[in-house]
Amino acid sequence: MTLAPPPSSRVQLTDDGKLRHFLSVEHLSRSLLEDILDTAASFVDVGGRAIKKVPLLRGKTVVNLFFESSTRTRSTFELAAKRLSADVLNLDIAKSATSKGETLLDTLRNLEAMAADMFVVRHQDSGAPFFIANEVTPGVAVINAGDGRHAHPTQAMLDMYTIRHYKGGFAGLRVAIVGDVLHSRVARSQVHALNILGAEEVRLIGPRTLLPVAAAESLGVTVCHDMAQGLKDVDVVIMLRLQKERMDSAFLPSEAEFFRLYGLNNEKLRHAKPDAIVMHPGPINRGVEIASEVADGPRSVILNQVTFGIAVRMAGMSMAISGQESSQNPEQGDQHGR
User: Fold this and answer.
1) Helix or strand or coil: residue 211?
2) 196 and 28 in contact (C-beta within 8 Å)?
3) pLDDT in tens, the chain (338 residues)
4) Cα end-to-end distance, the chain, whole Å
5) Is the pTM of this model over 0.85?
6) Alpha-carbon distance 32 to 109, whole Å?
7) Under a CB-based contact definition with an 8 Å cutoff, are residues 74 and 123 in contact?
C-alpha cells in the first residue's frame, strides 16, 4: 500500500488555524511551532513532581496504533498520555485483526466504537496518518508517530525544543544533519522545522548514495560530502541512524567505511564550534554513526532529547485534543489545555 501525503497539511488545522491533528511540520506557521514549544515548556517540570500527572486529558482514550516496531517513541507517547491523565490502549498489530485480514478502516471503525479520542499512528507507508486523519470520525485526533520516509513531526519538535533550550533560539544558527538523510523521515521534518523557525543555515552531510537527489534546491539546504567542510563552525550537530531496514548493500560499502568517513568522533567534532551540541534521534549505533566518546561526552544532549520528548508529545496531544474540541464547540474559544 502506498499512501502519498496530500500537498498541503491543512487537514491538520482548524478553520482558525489551531492544531487538531499533528501530521507534519511542513506548511505550519512559525507562530504555531513556537506555540508547541512554549506549551511543551509548561510540561517539562511535570516529570519531576511527586505526582507526575496533570488532568488535561482525564476521561480521554488514546490508542497507540504502531504498525512499525518502536521502543522509545511508543514509550514516550504512552508516558505523555498517562501524564495527561488519559487512558491508553497499546494495540499489538502483530496479534490484531489487521494481521488476520481486517482492513485498516475496519480496524479504525472498531476502535472508534470503543470511544477512542486519539490515534497515535506509526506506519511503514508514507501518508498513512493523513489517510487515517481524513477517515476518522470528527472529534478524533490523529498524531503522526512516523510514516515511511515522509515525516516524524514530534521527533522534529523535540529536537527543536532541545536546540532552543541550549541555544536560546534559532537566529544565526548553523545546523548540520549527518548520515542517512535519504531514508530519514526525521531529517525531513527537522529541515522543515529549522527553516520555518529561522535557522541561518542547514547542512546535510553524507555520501552521495545517502542524500536525496537535488536536496539543496528542494529542501533549501547546503549539501556537503566532506565532514570537515560540513561541520566547520556549526552550532548543532544532529547525527542520524543508518536505516538499514530501508536499504540494500548498494547504498553502503560497509559500516566500518561509513564510520571512517562520516562517523562522529572527537577529532571530527573539533571542526564545529567549541560550544556546539551533539544530538541523535536514537537509537544510536555506537561505532557506526557515532563514537562512545562523543555520545557520552560533555557536548552530547541525546538523553535530554528523550526527556524533552515527553513534554513535546504532551504538548502536541493536548493541543490536538483542544483543537478538536474547539472545532466541535466553537464557543470554547482559544484553549490549548494550559
Assistant:
1) coil
2) yes
3) 445 555 455 799 999 999 999 999 999 999 999 999 999 999 999 999 999 999 999 999 999 999 888 888 999 999 999 999 999 999 877 656 565 677 888 888 888 998 999 999 999 889 999 999 999 999 999 999 999 989 999 999 999 999 999 999 999 999 999 999 998 999 999 999 999 999 999 999 999 989 987 777 778 899 999 999 999 999 999 999 987 554 455 566 688 889 999 999 999 999 999 999 999 998 899 999 999 999 999 999 999 999 999 999 999 999 999 999 988 775 544 444 33
4) 39
5) yes
6) 31
7) no
Q: Compute the 3-state secondary structure of the chain and give helix, strand, coil in percent, each to the nearest 5.
A: 45, 15, 40
The C-alpha cell of 297 is what?
561526552
Which amino acid is residue 162, in one-letter code?
Answer: T
Question: For residue 181, which of 150, 210, 149 has the smallest C-alpha distance?
Answer: 210
Phi, psi of 312 (to 5 degrees): -65, -40
For residues 79 and 53, is the Cβ–Cβ distance under 8 A?
A: no
CA-CA distances (angstroms) from residue 159 to 28, 238, 257, 326? 16, 9, 28, 28
Stretch (H or E) spanning 296: none
User: Which residue in 256, 241, 248, 251 sits closest to 178, CA to CA?
Assistant: 241
For 20-37, the three-class secondary structure string (H helix, E strand, C coil) is CCECCCCCCCHHHHHHHH
Structural contact between residues 314 and 46, judged by C-beta atoms closer than 8 angstroms: yes
Write out the DSSP string of 104-148. HHHHHHHHHHTT--EEEEEESSTTHHHHHHHHSPTT-EEEEEEET
- Distance from C-alpha of 173 to C-alpha of 234, rounded to nearest angstrom: 7
Q: Which three cell numbers stand for residue 8?
A: 498541503
